[in-house]
Design a protein that fits this description.
heterodimer; A: 348 residues; alpha+beta; Rieske Iron-sulfur Protein; Naphthalene 1,2-dioxygenase Alpha Subunit, Chain A, domain 1; seven-stranded antiparallel beta sheet; four-stranded antiparallel beta sheet; 16% helix; 32% strand; B: 84 residues; mainly beta; Ubiquitin-like (UB roll); five-stranded mixed beta sheet; 1 helix; 8% helix; 31% strand; binds FE2/S2 (inorganic) cluster; binds fe (ii) ion
């Protein structure tokens, strides 16, 4: 039997996919170098404010174009002045020579959505903006948003997708925030869909976890659902549902006092060993309450730092094994995700 | 239908009684079978099926090679002989 070990890194990344390149305010009318999926890319906004992403290597001597200058909407190489427009075509060659056919750089399709700049890393002809993950309730006046943040994690992105398909870890990693006793032992269900994997479970009649407690509209115990979903290649929706104890269930309508929080987590591999992690949260209450957004932003950041510490150490541990490692029942969702993604990568 | 499970290496044949899997059944009968995930994920419980046929009661992540079964995800379809 051929297995993908949880420790072995995927041979590559899925190229034909949308990834988050940056928050929209991170890119302005200035050359900014970023590395995504091991590719060096130069980003900027043109004079109309449209984001541009070009291969960051001049076709002459491969000087990074990010070391050159913006000339209007074009980029001029800092060595001999080859100049490229936002489509990657050369508009000027030095010494009055004719522009060679091969003087062009790859221009990556870019879209802005949800305050993020998305980039298509595969064949440009296949880029379809309607494939960018949909965010439910975006712009709905009844829902609040905390715009979130980003962090760089020194770990392969698949250790993070493992984590985002593993609701059990909150019992140990987030004891003081998201976790409650019930998180440790109830067994989740796994659903394999075409676009990703879902691991979810209802926990009945439990004490609300400390992080959520102050925001609940009801007293006493709750039924709590954890919905952990990761879509290919590496975008997660983590939904938290709290309803008064006895009223929860997939077959029941949501109680009027339901607490809903959808956490969106977008992972962009920088290299095999480094990942950029973007997130924001949507909630079904206090839409315009800045204090609530700020409280969430702080708590989420604290929790994600807890994950980061663990995942970086897991990455180091798995890359430096002195003895074998084992897989447990809770690894079913994560390993299914890895298997399917590896197949998709192999099929490219 | 009365099915039997033969543990070849242990030299025992036992009548099958309802159990969640062949792995659980082996354990109930004091036959040592290695496992890790118990859920068709890791492949640790793979054992050679010397005779008979099994039903997969849980979908494993990877199907084992022909002639090998994952004890944690299967129950006997016919009487079986396991290399255990
Ligand atoms: S229990 Fe999972 S790393 Fe130790
Ligand atoms: S014990 Fe892991 S596959 Fe059976
Ligand atoms: Fe976590």
């Amino acid at each position: 039997m051929t297995r993908i070990e949880s420790g072995s890194e995927s041979p590559a990344f899925l190229k034909n996919a949308w990834y988050v390149a940056a928050w929209d305010n991170e890119i302005g009318h200035a050359l900014t170098a970023v590395t995504l999926l091991n590719e060096s890319i130069v980003m900027y906004r043109d004079s109309a404010g449209k984001a541009v992403a070009l291969e960051n290597a001049c076709p002459h001597r491969k000087l990074p174009l990010s070391m050159g200058r913006l000339k209007g909407d074009d980029v001029e190489c800092g060595y001999h002045g080859l100049t490229f427009n936002p489509q990657g075509a050369c508009t000027r060659a030095p010494g009055g020579q004719r522009i060679p056919k091969a003087a062009c750089v790859h221009s990556y399709p870019v879209e802005e959505r949800y305050g993020l700049i998305w980039i298509w890393m595969g064949e440009a002809a296949k880029a379809d903006p309607s494939k960018i993950m949909n965010v439910d309730h975006w712009g709905d006046p009844a829902w609040g948003l905390n715009r979130g943040d980003a962090m760089t994690v020194e770990a392969n992105y698949l250790y993070i997708t493992d984590n985002l398909l593993d609701p059990s870890h909150v019992a140990w990693v987030h004891q003081t925030s998201f976790g409650n006793a019930a998180c440790a032992d109830s067994v989740p269900d796994m659903t394999a869909a075409d676009n990703g994997v879902i691991v979810s479970r209802w926990m009945r009649d439990t004490e609300p976890a400390p992080f959520y407690q102050p925001f609940l509209k009801f007293q006493g115990n709750c039924d709590r659902k954890q919905h952990y979903e990761v879509r290919y290649p590496s975008h997660a929706i983590i939904k938290a549902i709290f309803v008064p104890a006895g009223t929860g269930g997939d077959d029941k309508p949501l109680h009027k006092d339901v607490f809903l929080m959808d956490s969106y987590n977008f992972l962009t591999p920088i290299t095999e060993n480094l990942t950029r992690y973007y997130w924001f949260q949507m909630r079904n209450f206090a839409p315009n309450d800045r204090a609530v957004s700020a409280a969430f932003a702080t708590s989420v950041r604290t929790a994600f730092e807890e994950d980061k510490t663990i995942l970086q150490a897991v990455h180091r541990g798995m890359n430096n094994k002195k003895s074998g490692n084992i897989d447990l029942k809770i690894d079913k969702g994560p390993l299914h995700f890895r298997k399917r993604l590896a197949q998709m990568i192999a099929a490219e | 239908m009365n099915l039997t499970v033969t543990f070849k290496r242990s030299g025992r044949t036992v009548a099958w009684t309802e159990a969640e899997s062949l792995l659980a059944f082996a354990e109930h009968n004091g036959v040592d079978a290695p496992f890790s995930c118990g859920a068709g994920v890791c492949g640790t419980c793979a054992a050679a099926l010397l005779a008979g046929d099994v039903t997969y009661v849980e979908d494993p992540l990877y199907l084992p090679d022909p002639g090998v079964v994952l004890l944690c995800c299967t129950t006997p379809k016919t009487s079986v002989v396991l290399d255990l």
